[in-house]
Amino acid sequence: MHIDTDVCVQLSDCSREDAQAVFDVLDHVYELEDLKAPGAQTVSAPGVNVWTATFDTAAGPHEEVRPVPLTGMVGAVLTGGYHAVDEVEKTLATSFDIQSLQSVSGDQETEARLLLAAR
Questions:
Q1: At what angle do helices 16-29 and 82-95 cross, to 10 degrees?
Q2: Fewest CB atoms within 10 A around its CB: which of 26, 51, 61, 65?
Q3: Ranges of each domain in the chain
Q4: 60 contacts 23 by C-beta, under 8 angstroms
Q5: Looking at the record's lineage, which domain of life comes first (predicted)?
Q6: pLDDT digits (tens, 9 = 90+) for 69-110
């Protein structure tokens, strides 16, 4: 794991298809390092599903992305280095409407909580 460039993305409160749509956007821009596939939930409880992927913001195809339809709101938690999390948030903003819910900062990492919606 590249601590300065890797971002862990956790998606929740959404359908499997919406989670895959968000991951597809990020996969067109960054290198996917690890994915807990939407078909295999990483956390499961009554009414709760969380999908997780890690992206390297320094590598990947860096393709241009466009707005992507979602069937509902998607909760997202981004964790990683300050610059890397900021980059992923900017990329998501090119495809989705974003509402920032909270940000928690540490010495070398930050966590951003977002709500994504279709444009």
A1: 120
A2: 61
A3: 6-117
A4: no
A5: Bacteria
A6: 999 999 999 999 999 999 999 999 999 999 998 888 888 899
